[in-house]
Write a structure and sequence with these properties.
Shape: globular
Largest sheet: 8 strands, mixed
CATH superfamily: DNA polymerase III subunit chi
CATH topology: Rossmann fold
Strand order of the largest sheet: 3-4-2-5-6-1-7-8
Structural class: alpha/beta
Number of strands: 8
Oligomer: single chain
CATH class: Alpha Beta
């Protein structure tokens, strides 16, 4: 079984700013990413923001609304409300969604779970769910102003 990991990011700022820094880092490392959203409005919003996030970076991305599933293989980032594997992602990024409704998380090597500071209890519940699904290597990063401190999630 591959070494699966979850990194939790407890944020006090806007989700999309942290998420896009993660997307840039994952893309630069060659990771393919499923950016899981709660609804279609989030898919449109986050997808369009990625196009304008950085003037220096181009990150091939898409969703079913703008690209056919057959062309998803050319996208390093795929935005969706469902577990779709068109772009063969190795990493999952989401904003603190209830993961118990998804039964295919074991197909990922990494999960980036970004949540608001007020939702720590729900993150701990997700941590237990991840452990039961083979993601035993877990780390928590907590945003403190402009810096981050590292802790264990449990």
């Amino acid at each position: 079984m591959p070494n699966r990991s979850v990194v939790f990011y407890c944020i006090e700022s806007e989700f999309w700013a942290t998420a896009y820094r993660l997307v840039e880092k994952l893309y630069s490392a060659g990771e393919r990413l499923l950016f899981l959203c709660d609804n279609d409005d989030e898919v449109s919003s986050y997808s369009s923001r990625l196009w304008t996030y950085s003037k220096l970076a181009f990150i091939p991305s898409g969703s079913r609304r703008i690209i056919s599933a057959s062309d998803a293989e050319f996208c390093y980032v795929w935005f969706s409300t469902t577990m779709e594997f068109y772009n063969t992602p190795t990493c999952l990024l989401h904003n603190g969604l209830d993961m118990t409704k998804f039964n295919t998380i074991e197909r990922f090597c990494k999960i980036m779970d970004v949540f608001n500071v007020d939702l720590m209890a729900a993150a701990r519940t997700r941590s237990e769910f991840y452990k039961k699904n083979g993601f035993r290597n877990q780390k928590l990063w907590i945003q403190v102003g402009q810096s981050w401190k590292s802790e264990n999630i449990t």
